[in-house]
Amino acid sequence: MKNELHIVGGGMAGSEAAWQAAQRGLNVVLHEMRPEVETFAHKTGKLGEMVCSNSFRSDDDEQNAVGLLHWEMRAAGGLIISTAGEYRLPAGGALAVDREAFADAITAKLTALDTVRVSHEEVTELPDQGQWIFATGPLTSARLGQAIQAETGADALAFFDAIAPIVYAESIDMEKAWLQSRYDKGETEDEQKAYVNCPMDRDQYEAFIDALLAADKTEFHEGETAGYFDGCLPIEVMAERGRETLRHGPMKPVGLTNPHQPDVKPHAVVQLRRDNALGTLFNIVGFQTKMKYGAQADVFRMIPGLAEARFARLGGIHRNTFLNSPTLLDAQMRLRSRPNIRFAGQITGVEGYVESSAMGLLAGRMAAAELLGTPLPEVPQDSAHGALIHHITGGAEAKTFQPMNVNFGLFRPVDGLKGGRRGRKDRYKAYTDRAKAAWSAWLDAQRTA
Ligand SMILES: Cc1cc2nc3c(=O)[nH]c(=O)nc-3n(C[C@H](O)[C@H](O)[C@H](O)COP(=O)(O)OP(=O)(O)OC[C@H]3O[C@@H](n4cnc5c(N)ncnc54)[C@H](O)[C@@H]3O)c2cc1C
């Protein structure tokens, strides 16, 4: 059929992509395997089913990056965000919804369109012909996972995430921490100073181990097997194996000299590594964890240099299928090796309902522009959508790539504004003002094209 787009997966991203493409005049076939093939988390065969929480998080579009994504999706006529607004429940500053009514409405709105056909079947191959968007999410079926792995290579598709906490660089106290790579390795000064180091003396280390052992932990969901044990133990599990294990692992104090106290050998050192090209985010090396979020913030702020740390995201380990997007996808979310195939949603390495819908919105518009021959202007990097897509398709460190949610650390700094905690309100307002202007201009350019 003319101008036909196939979308695999009718979750957050696939439903949004289908809506956007249909609004632009495409004929869409939406392939959704449920209810014929189930996942351990979904309960129905409906489109847009929320698998866990019923919240789209903060709706504050001036001071919060998620709220800003809401604003941008509303401005772009997003299906997920507008439907969420219709079925909103009282939840303070958050956008929470009646999940059943929400999924019913998404299903009804899409199936009511003459140009969208829903086909309940599992897709198990990457087709050679036609235009496709794969939005199969964190629980992509096993057979499709194998087909993707065959195309991309085993190392480029992960089945679990193992997320170490990510800290805003400006919130690290460099009076206590210092920049140095172990044994000053590297050719350039940048490489020799690639890590932030936080030293601990014996008492601080022992107190830290006690806190790790005592912290509240989350359990895996039922059906989510604990296959993470192969390669990336949570730090609290390492600590359970012996009080010295971390000191011989990610916290080993060798090859490093503290310039603030050159004569004192640290008992242990926590290292943070740059997480994005902008240098605004650092991840704590080897600190993947199943500690509850509240406990994580308390425990990690015990680390000298991180007492005032602000976290762009906390750590976690989940069942999660995702691509190494920085190496595999081009700026249009196409698979470099098979440009008739796009990916969207959580499988691209974003995390959360909102971020996944946002990537669906972009993929739907990009596919439509390509099929209709109407070039889409580049997504502005200063918008929340642009900051996210830029991160996953290029800005993130490919070697250590782990799923990311939207946060202001992904945005280019606004010149001339005060750093630190005090300037935060003005800074966030400046980011969101700039983003809204850039996003509105991008949408206008498409209306007049
Ligand atoms: C257990 C669990 C709990 C979570 N809790 C939260 C939470 O509380 N808040 C939050 O923001 N995020 C949560 N997430 C992440 C959440 O799943 C995603 O953010 C969001 O649903 C991703 O949207 P998506 O469209 O990429 O994938 P999904 O919404 O999962 O949609 C993917 C769709 O593809 C279908 N599919 C898979 N394989 C195939 C195939 N081969 N052929 C055809 N169809 C296929 C699936 O049935 C599914 O409908 C959770 C994830 C999991 C696994």
From TrEMBL:
Enzyme Commission number: 2.1.1.74
Listed SUPFAM superfamilies: FAD/NAD(P)-binding domain
Entries under InterPro entries matching the protein: FAD/NAD-bd_sf (IPR036188), MnmG-rel (IPR002218), MnmG-rel_CS (IPR020595), MnmG_N (IPR040131), TrmFO (IPR004417)
UniProt main location, coarse: cytoplasm
Function, in words: Catalyzes the folate-dependent formation of 5-methyl-uridine at position 54 (M-5-U54) in all tRNAs.
Family statement: Belongs to the MnmG family. TrmFO subfamily.
Record's protein name: Methylenetetrahydrofolate--tRNA-(uracil-5-)-methyltransferase TrmFO
